[in-house]
Fold each of these.
Amino acid sequence: MDAPDRTTTPPPRADGYESFYREFDAPWMREFRREAYGEDIGQHSWVGADELRADMARLRLAPSSHLIDLGCGPAGPLAFVVATVGWMRGSRGRTEPVGGAGRPLAMRGARNRSPALSR
């Protein structure tokens, strides 16, 4: 058995979630989510808008609620919850997006400029 050749350049490393989120908000990805889920709420998992609405009803979320979203990535579903519940900057309600780095964090920052994502 021959020893591996250690003089060659190793293959490029995958950049993890960065490549996944690179085109996350591209028109073709939005269309894909609309076709796959029926409604594009910026999800990056298998949650659908109707399921999320049902969860919000079960949790009895109100404009004064406090919601923590663990592992929220770019916070698409969280932004949907904020808009649906009616949280606005200055209201008593509060959201805490937790998780993500790099591109997802930057995307969440862009979404944060509109509704009431984390104050």
Note: The domain at 17-112 is CATH 3.40.50.150 (Rossmann fold).
Amino acid sequence: MYGTFHHYLENQVKNAGPLDLVLMLYSRALSCLRISKKAIEEGAPGGGFIFGSSNAIQSSVPPENFLIMLETAKKYGKYKSEV
């Protein structure tokens, strides 16, 4: 199954960008915004970028920081349509 999945995504996914959870854990709100925005700005050009926090959010990450990460993704994590 992995081989089929990998083959399907081989030319579509360029970068899956986990944010540094230690920074998310100990940073203030403005820093979380900057960290999230920088990850999108650096990873998104060219398409195929998956924005995320690895495979989970630790329960010790402040909810405010997690919500900032999500809002930043909503605001800055969209590709422009080429229609």
Note: The chain is about 50% helix and 10% strand.
Amino acid sequence: MITLGTDDNVELTDALTDATTNDAATQPVAPTNVAGCHTAMFTPEVIEIMSEALEASVEALPEPVSAEHVHCLAESILLTAKDGERDTAVLERIALVELQLRD
């Protein structure tokens, strides 16, 4: 697990799991605080794919990585996965392009 530098100290999985709650490991979980994703349901397998994509996209950025950038990457990955994408490399690439367009 990568921990972000300087004052951020945010674990990558927190960016994806802050919005999800469910006690049953095999049940889909629904993000609630990402715009446009309030009705999306993700299985644990898809959450793992999204986590891998987020970790890879953060590793591609120069350090230090801000919490704002991680949030933007996570939001992009959530929205893209909601649309059905399940390829880690594609999720990563789209998130990085969208981050570049925002900056």
Note: DSSP finds four helices and no strands in the chain.
